Structure formats: C-alpha cells, structure tokens
C-alpha cells in the first residue's frame, strides 16, 4: 500500500481545481433554482401543494410557514381556520413583487384560496405518534419532535430555549449526529463482525461500519427535510471519513471552508440560512479553541473551559441577530454538558416508552418565568469581532485581542 505525499504546490492546485468544480456546481444549482423561480412568477397566481411547517400566532391572525416541493414561503391565515403543523394544503398564492432573492430567502405573500388535503400516514408521522404517546403535555412532545425530527418549535417554546441560551441544543447539528452515528455503529458492530470474520476479513471493518452509519444518517437527513445545520454536520462527517481514509489531517479551517462551499454549491438557498451560519461559526470557534487550548493538562478543566469559552465567543454573533438576554443564559455551558447525557437517555427512553417519567421535571423547566432585557451589538463592532476571529487563525496576537473583546462584551452583556 502506497501513500502519496503531496507538496504545497500540488495541494494548492488540487484545492483550486476543487473550488472551480464547486463553482460550476453552484452555477448549475443556481440556474435550476432560477428556472423554478421563473415557473413560480410566470403568472400572477400560482397553485401548489404545501406542508405547514410552522404556525406563528399573532393577535388577529396566524402567520404560516409553508413548504412546497421547490420553495418555502410565509402567508397569513385567519384564526378561524383549523390549521395545524404538518397539515397538507392545496393553495393558490399571488406571485407579483417576488424577486429572485426573496424567492431564495423565503418570501411572504397573500393567499387567494386553499383546500385542506387528506394526508397519507408516513414513516415520519409514525415516529411523531410514538413521541406523543410518551407524553401527555403537548409542549413537551413538541420539544422532542424538534430534538428528534427537526420539526420547528412554536414561538412560545422557542423563546424558552432562547431565554436559557440553549437554542443550539434543539437545532439538530453535530452532537446529535455524533450520538446517532455512535448508536448505529454499535448496533451493526457484532452482526457485521460475524460476516466480516468469515467472508471478507481483508476489508477494513471500522471503515465499512462508518459507511453503513453514513447511509443511515443520510436517510435521517432526508427524513428531517435537510435541515441546514444537520447538513453541515453530515457533510463534515463525510469529509472526515474520507480524509481519515486518506490520512489527511481532519481538524482544519480549510476543511470547514470546503464543507461550506459544498453545501452552498448544492443548496444555494442556504446562504441565507441563519441556522447554517450559526452552525458554521460554532464549529469555527471549536476549531479555534482546539488550536490554542488543546494542551490543557486537566481534561475536566478543559471540558468546563471549552463549554464556557465557546458560549462566550458565540455571544457577539448571536446577539447581533437576537438581542434577548437573561441572566439564566449564564447557565448555558452547564446545560450543554448535562445535555450530553440527557439526549441519548431520552432517545433510549422514547424507543422503550418510558420517557414520561421525566416529564414533571421538563414541565418545570419549560414553565420557568424569566426577566428579559435587550442587549445587542453594533454592526461596526460585529465586523471587528468577525475580522479578529478570522485573523486568529494565523496570528496569536489577534487571538489575544479576540479574547479581550469576548471578555469585555460579555461583561457589557450581563452587567
């Protein structure tokens, strides 16, 4: 077996060719999206089938987020209509004043009429029924539908997680994918070992099991309707397996950058996804932490410091978009550590139908009353923070300045 060693120029040439390939894919993907957009706006009224993704309750009406085969959009419905999440509708909408950027971002438009359609029970619906059978409280069921299937939370429930500073825990991403890949790996480990030993011992068993896990995780990605943050985690897992096989360093900012380019080249719409950007920044600061703090001797101290540093580093990014602040958000690093055990436990509990025993504690958690206040960050300071963050990849002095910024901003945020 030979391992090819590439010099710097050869590696740069490969990277450039790969970027050009991704740019070509991006252009093709964008042209496909533009064709779909032209089909949408060809006439002033467009009729399509949609699924209700989320309902945002207002005082006099409800705003619905709807998903068609080709695009997502928002519209208003009177409260008199009995519409629920995951309902299937046939709907006619007005398409004037929808430009291509609005189409990619997810536009708002008015509805002319709609019909409620009968929906066939899918595999996803059966999982939802299983989740709901474990709980009597609908809000708790809603939390686990989000945790396991990426079904969006209602405004009220989402605000609870925002106030705790743990919205990242209910947004399916790398940690959730890691737990699922670990479970799939060990479920297939012993059956596969039996056949591996007898019929093809020459194969790399660990690599084969990772590929099996990847197939199941891809199916799970499709089951969740390709959530941006989960897609980022899946692409990085795929790259990680490939790079591990090729004996190339896994944790590099270049690999993160390529993961982003792959996602955007295939799904141009995701360039407007906050979920993707938060997920990318989260991994970026994890890599930055590893670069500068990987040599901490105490693993316990490293774990605690890791969770606190990542949380405080993300605050300027998060608070540029969402200004809601509570003192309870300071518990976020501890809750993140607890979630490491909570998520697989609840996954196991739902499979074997004893998840209800934790409901009284979750209900208390969800019904907690917060004192909230608004603290943001100016656009100029936000740009300085981002530039310092990127400069820290190459310069330790920039990293020191970044940490000064983090400390000062979080003091300003909570004092």
TrEMBL record:
Residue stretches spanning the membrane: 14-32, 166-189, 209-238, 250-268, 274-293, 300-322, 334-358, 370-392, 398-414
GO CC terms: plasma membrane
The keyword Protein transport is assigned to this record: no
Location of the protein in the cell: Cell membrane
Positions of the ComEC/Rec2-related protein domain: 153-408
Signal peptide start and end residues: none
UniProt keywords, alphabetically: Cell membrane, Membrane, Transmembrane, Transmembrane helix
Membrane topology qualifier: Multi-pass membrane protein
Main localization, broad class: membrane
UniProt name for this protein: Competence protein
């Amino acid at each position: 077996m030979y391992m090819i060693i590439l010099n710097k120029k050869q590696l740069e040439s490969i990277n450039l060719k790969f970027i050009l390939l991704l740019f070509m894919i991006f252009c093709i993907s964008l042209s496909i999206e533009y064709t779909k957009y032209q089909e949408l706006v060809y006439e002033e009224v467009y009729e399509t089938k949609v699924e209700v993704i989320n309902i945002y309750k207002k005082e006099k009406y409800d705003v619905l987020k709807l998903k068609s085969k080709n695009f997502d959009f928002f519209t208003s419905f009177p409260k008199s209509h009995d519409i629920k999440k995951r309902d299937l509708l046939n709907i006619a909408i007005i398409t004037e004043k929808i430009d291509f950027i609005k189409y990619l971002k997810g536009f708002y438009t008015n509805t002319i009429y709609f019909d409620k359609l009968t929906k066939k029970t899918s595999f996803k619906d059966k999982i939802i029924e299983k989740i709901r059978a474990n709980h009597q409280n609908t809000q708790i069921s809603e939390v686990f539908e989000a945790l396991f299937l990426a079904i969006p939370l209602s405004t009220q429930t989402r605000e609870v997680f925002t106030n705790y500073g743990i919205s990242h825990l209910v947004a399916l991403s790398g940690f959730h994918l890691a737990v699922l890949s670990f479970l799939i790996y060990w479920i297939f480990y012993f059956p596969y070992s039996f056949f591996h030993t007898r019929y093809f011992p020459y194969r790399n068993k660990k690599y084969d099991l990772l590929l099996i896990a990847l197939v199941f995780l891809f199916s799970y990605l499709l089951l969740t309707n390709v959530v941006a943050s989960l897609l980022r985690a899946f692409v990085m897992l795929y790259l990680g397996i490939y790079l591990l096989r090729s004996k190339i360093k896994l944790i590099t900012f270049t690999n993160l950058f390529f993961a982003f380019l792959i996602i955007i080249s295939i799904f141009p719409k995701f360039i407007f996804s906050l979920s993707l950007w938060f997920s990318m920044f989260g991994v970026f600061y994890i890599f930055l932490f590893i670069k500068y703090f990987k040599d901490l001797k105490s693993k316990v101290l490293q774990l605690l410091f890791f969770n606190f540093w990542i949380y405080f580093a993300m605050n300027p990014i998060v608070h540029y978009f969402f200004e809601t602040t509570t003192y309870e958000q300071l518990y976020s690093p501890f809750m993140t550590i607890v979630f490491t055990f909570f998520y697989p436990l609840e996954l196991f509990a739902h499979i074997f139908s004893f998840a209800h025993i934790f409901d009284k504690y979750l209900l208390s958690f969800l019904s907690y009353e917060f004192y909230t206040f608004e603290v943001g960050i100016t656009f100029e300071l936000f740009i300085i923070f981002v530039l310092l963050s990127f400069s820290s990849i190459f310069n330790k002095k920039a990293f020191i300045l970044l940490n000064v910024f983090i400390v000062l901003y979080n003091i300003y945020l909570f004092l």
